[in-house]
Amino acid sequence: MRLVIARCSVDYTGRLNAHLPLATRLLVHKGDGSLLVHSDGGSYKPLNWMSPPCRLDVEIPDEESASAGVVEHWRVTHAKTGDALLVRIYEVLHDSSHELGLDPGLQKDGVEADLQRLLAEQVDVIGENLTLVRREFPTAIGPVDLLLRDPAGGTIAVEVKRRGDIDGVEQLTRYLELLGRDPHLAPVTGVFAAQEIKPQAKVLAADRGIRCVTLDYEGMKGIESGAPRLF
């Protein structure tokens, strides 16, 4: 990755035209060929950019540009669309290159798989004296996140989401209908568990006889205490 801080102007031509007048900016030329133009503001978004596949050509400025103080042209052309980004460099204040290597990618904390794993280890969050039958219990239309047994021998199907909406309730409803046909599992009740459950989902769940549980993810990890809230 090459990082250049320079006094520059930028012109984008193609499907749309855009102009950035002369100012000091950060130019980021990444290993995938993309170029991003940043200012010292505007949050994380670049002011302008060219996405790959594209090619950067460094050109000697013409006489008119040189007389205006331009020392270098960066022309970035998109390989498919032909869109072009022309950066006129007036002064380079910093220029460095860094080999970052392969990135392992973003590892999210609190995704549904984490919630499911924690809930399988702490089924008392759903109710007292429950036992885990299986995670990812297979059905003909997909796996149920958790299948539990209550002390009376009844089955509880649990659908786990980070953010619970109507689609999640509909998904659990289909699982309940299918599981309820199995005499070895019936009677089957449903629990919709999520960190956040939308009001419309709660209304639909109540109408379907499904209980909602709001999960305290930080508390389940043991970072801070907190009891789940039942609705």
Automatic annotation (TrEMBL):
Keyword presence, DNA-binding: yes
Protein name (Swiss-Prot/TrEMBL): Endonuclease NucS
Originating organism: Microbacterium jejuense
PANTHER family reported for this sequence: ENDONUCLEASE NUCS (PTHR38814)
Top EC class, one word: hydrolase
Family classification: Belongs to the NucS endonuclease family.
Residue intervals of the Endonuclease NucS N-terminal PH-like domain: 2-103
Database matches in NCBIfam families: PRK03298.1
Locations listed in the record: Cytoplasm
Role, per record: Cleaves both 3' and 5' ssDNA extremities of branched DNA structures.
Gene Ontology terms, MF aspect: endonuclease activity
Classification lineage: Bacteria, Bacillati, Actinomycetota, Actinomycetes, Micrococcales
Residues annotated as domain Endonuclease NucS C-terminal: 111-230
Catalytic activity, EC: 3.1.-.-
Keywords per UniProt: Cytoplasm, DNA-binding, Endonuclease, Hydrolase, Nuclease
UniProt key word Magnesium: no
Signal sequence, start to end: none
